[in-house]
Amino acid sequence: MPVQSNVRWVDIESLFLELGSNVSEGRGSRVQVKLNGVRAVFHRPHPKPETDKGALNSVKRFLINAGIKNDEI
């Protein structure tokens, strides 16, 4: 399935929280996320609020590594 390119970062952070992630602020635009023992650091997009396809692929890999299945997202 092709990756969307119009997903707002606030929606991704909301998903992380809904799944039970620990989300904390890093330096600058960094966001640290920990879920099921798996840790990742992401960068909030700027100046636009939409996340690029590369970052969305990273989010997907993180969720898979944390044991989240497609039907849980």
Mean pLDDT: 90
> Roughly how many Å apart are the termini?
14 Å
Q: Order of strands side by side in the largest beta sheet?
A: 2-3-4
Tally the helices: what do you get? 2
Main sheet overview: 3 strands, antiparallel
Q: Secondary-structure element order, as H and E?
A: EHEEEEH
Give the strand content.
Answer: 25-35%
The unreliable regions are: none
Label the overall shape: globular
Comma- or semicolon-separated keywords:
Metal Transport, Frataxin, Chain A, alpha+beta, 73 residues, three-stranded antiparallel sheet, two-stranded antiparallel sheet
Structure, described:
Helices cover 32% and strands 27% of the residues. With 73 residues, it is α+β, with helices and mostly antiparallel strands. The chain has a single domain, classed as Metal Transport, Frataxin, Chain A. The strands form 2 sheets. Strands 2-3-4 form a 3-stranded antiparallel beta sheet, with helices on one face.
Topology of helices and strands:
Elements: E1 7-8, H1 9-18, E2 22-25, E3 30-35, E4 38-43, E5 50-51, H2 53-65
Antiparallel strand pairs: 1-5, 2-3, 3-4
State the gist of this model:
With 73 residues, the chain is α+β, with helices and mostly antiparallel strands. It contains 2 helices and 5 strands; from the N terminus they run βαββββα.
